[in-house]
Amino acid sequence: MSTFIQEMRATDNRLLLRISIIAAVGGLLFGYDTGVISGALLYITADLKPSTFEAEAIVAVLLLGAMVGALGSGYLADRVSRKWTKVISGTVYVVGALGCALSVSTGMLIGFRFLLGLSVGTASFVSPLYISEVSPPRVRGGLVSFNQMAIVCGILLAYIVNFVFRDFPDQWRWMLGVAAIPGAVLAVGMLTVPHTPRWLTLVGREDEAREVLEELRSGDDKADPDQEMEDIKEANEQERSTTVRTLLEPRLRAALLVGIVLAVAQQFVGVNTVIYYAPTILSDTGLTNSAALASTMIVGVTNVVFTVVAVLLLDKVGRGALLLTGSVVLLVALVVLGIYFTSPTLQADYGWLALAGLVLFIAGFAIGLGPVFWLMISEIYPIGVRSKAMSVCTIVNWGANFLVAQTFLTLSGAISRQGVFFLYAGLAVLAIGFFIKWVPETKDKSLETLQEELTH
Ligand code: BGC
Question: What range does the domain containing 107 cover?
Answer without folding.
Answer: 1-193
